[in-house]
Amino acid sequence: MRTPLFFSTLFFLCVLCTVEAKDYKASFFGIKSNGTTLNTTSIQKAIDHIHENGGGRLVFYVGRYLTGTIYLKSDVTLHLEEGAVLVGSENPFDYDRHGYWTALIFAFDQQNIGITGKGVIDGQGYKVANNILDMVHRGVIKDPNDLLYDRPREGIRPQNIYFKGCKQVTITGITLKDPGSWNQQYDQCSGILVDDITVDSKSYWNNDGIDIVDCDGVVIKNSYFDAADDGICLKSHDANKVCNNVVIKNNVVRSSASGIKFGTASRGGFKNIKIINNTVYDTYRSAITFAAVDGGFIENVLVDSLRAYNTGNPIFLRIGERKPPHKGRLENIVISNFYAEVPANKPDAGYRFEGPVEDLPRNISPSVITGMPDAPIKNLLFKNVEFRYPGGGDSLYAKVNLNDLDKIPELPKKYPEFSMFKELPAWGFYLRHVQGVRFENLRLVCKEKDYRRAIVLDDVHNANFKSLGVQDPVQNREPIYEHQSSAVLVE
């Protein structure tokens, strides 16, 4: 049995390690702050020295520090004082590539690392990406996707941060801006704290705000994300790994794709996720998206106190089968205290890279919850939910008659987005292939007359509606339409 003396000694050793961790000025290693000297070698030598001498902080003071790829190592923190800017080189050949990914700051299998302070990491991604594009056209750089849409693939454009297999990661206070690809990716890491950061991630295509891939023990809180692609994104790239024990709390997200999303890459799984007290706005796609489409699972997810304004779609839940026979699984989801406003116009207008127009023309989509005939979504609870829609649906748009719901395609292999089915026959909620769903205090408001019903249930079983309130400009119309469904109770 451990004694109090053991804990006292352990505490003393931890405090001693903290006290002995040193601060090292960047200038001590000859690192220049003039914005023109390439400091890659000097910064790396500084990191190596601190790592080999017991750890500490490499402190950058006011100035612009130009660099290519650097590697963070155990027990080292990059600390950027206010006014300090770590600037990514515009030259594509100043960056290293590992596997699929390129990055400004790499870390592999390290522990107790961090980036802190009130300074900025500026990837200069727009310039780098266009320089890469030029090199691809010249045949100097090979693009693995053969320049689809004349865009270099995200793997050859540098992320600001890519950490893999790391433990005890702290990212606090800083601003991360202008990445060439995804902004920051944490892959198979554990013990991650992201707190009070500002993300300006809309310089180029695929500029996600943050990507958490197969990680365990993650907290993302008190931060602001402004992204050209998904704002906060969880992924599972490995069929044998899981995103587990993740808390997303007190954040504000702006995105020209989806606000909070996980599962586009869903080979393994996602469980024990808490999304609490967040705000999402100006999203072209969904405020929240959970998709199990690559054989993985999603279970035990809590969304509470979410506010979404000017969002193209409040909720999109999806099971798919992009690579047969790997079907996903999605169950045990609780969504409570959720308020959303859906506009009549394009919600991401004004972004440098707006969402695509190929999904138009169509009417405003409802919230979409769709499983598969042999893989239904199970055990959902919606409590205290209010969604406001513009209405005004045009019946001449690719309308599906309520008597012909079977004509809506399943599309199991298609990339999961709320607009994938084009026109849907509901203005509020469309549920298909669902077993076990309960709505408590659901309020749906439609501003203008719409030819569609508020709620359509298609192959839905064991559905309960308690305290349902629907404000429909079309008088005396039943709010719920059932098709091939059973055990539907409205209290």
Commentary on this structure:
Helix content is 9%, strand content 51%. It is mainly beta and 491 residues long. The model is unreliable at 1-19 (pLDDT under 50).
Percent helix range: under 10%
Mean pLDDT: 93
Indicate the proportion of strand residues.
over 45%
* Shape estimate: elongated
The major sheet is characterized as: 5 strands, parallel, barrel
CA distance, first residue to last residue: 56 Å
Unreliable stretches covering 5 or more consecutive residues: 1-19
Compute the number of helices.
3
Structural class category: mainly beta
Order of neighbouring strands in the sheet with most strands: 26-27-29-30-28
How many strand elements? 33
Gyration radius over CA: 24 Å
Condensed summary:
With 491 residues, this protein is mainly beta.
Write the layout of secondary structure elements.
Blueprint: H1 4-20, E1 22-25, E2 34-38, H2 40-52, E3 56-60, E4 63-67, E5 70-71, E6 76-80, E7 84-88, E8 96-98, E9 101-108, E10 111-117, E11 120-122, H3 125-138, E12 158-164, E13 167-172, E14 175-177, E15 184-187, E16 190-195, E17 198-201, E18 210-213, E19 216-221, E20 224-227, E21 232-236, E22 242-249, E23 252-255, E24 260-266, E25 269-292, E26 297-319, E27 329-341, E28 367-370, E29 377-391, E30 426-448, E31 453-471, E32 480-483, E33 486-490
Parallel strand pairs: 1-3, 2-4, 3-6, 4-7, 5-9, 6-10, 7-11, 9-12, 10-13, 11-14, 12-15, 13-16, 14-17, 15-18, 16-19, 17-20, 18-21, 19-22, 20-23, 21-24, 22-25, 23-25, 24-25, 25-26, 26-27, 26-28, 27-29, 28-30, 29-30, 30-31, 31-32, 31-33
Antiparallel strand pairs: 8-9
